[in-house]
Amino acid sequence: MKPQARLPQPGGALTVGRWLHDELQRRGYNLSQRGGGRRAFADESGIPQATVSRLLRDDGGADPATLGKVAQALNVPLTPLLVLAGIIPEAEVERPTSISTDEALAALGITRPAHKAAVMSMVNALLDETPERGDTSK
User: Fold this and answer.
1) Which of 95, 78, 76, 96 lies closest to 87, judged by CA?
2) Planar angle of CA 19, 21, 26, nearest 5 degrees
3) What DSSP character marks residue 96?
4) What residue ranges define each of the domains in the chain, with the CATH number in brackets?
5) Is pTM, for the whole model, over 0.70?
């Protein structure tokens, strides 16, 4: 199983190249000159190897189409990459809003009181569940 992606967090000194370098190394790509990690990622992502190298050096190549391929290859959302690259301002990114339990159930089409109670009972049971000692499946 591949490690879970760490999404880029805009701000500070983080760049697309630094994030991509760290993420690829974390996933086991050898990015040394002769390691073959750049070529492997290029082959897997459909991005030319020269473009991958430019991305890693923060030397151009961070256009939306290329970032889309990066996001798809690494199974991460595109929006944080676009913000990190300065293509879209962070202020324009919609943030999820909190909704009430009743609003969430209604959005799922669960309106009957008995069905709502059943769903909430299941959710609460899952939230309250603590792994048994020695159980590694959780």
Assistant:
1) 78
2) 95
3) P
4) 16-92 (1.10.260.40), 97-131 (no CATH)
5) no
Percentage of residues of the chain with pLDDT beyond 70: 83
Backbone angles phi, psi at 126, to 5 degrees: -70, -40
51, 17 Cβ separation under 8 angstroms = no
Q: How many CA atoms lie within 13 A of 85 on its CB side?
A: 24
- The one-letter code for the residue type at 136 is T
Asked if 55 contacts 61 with a C-beta cutoff of 8 angstroms, the reply is yes
Q: Roughly how many angstroms between the first and final C-alpha of the chain, as a whole number?
A: 15
Residue owning tokens 């996933």:
27
Outline where the chain has alpha helix (H).
Answer: 16-26, 37-45, 49-56, 64-74, 78-84, 101-107, 113-128
Tell me the pLDDT tens digit for each residue of 5-35: 566 665 567 899 999 999 999 999 999 877 7
pLDDT in the model for residue 5: 57
Give the pair of three-digit tokens for residue 51.
């473009």
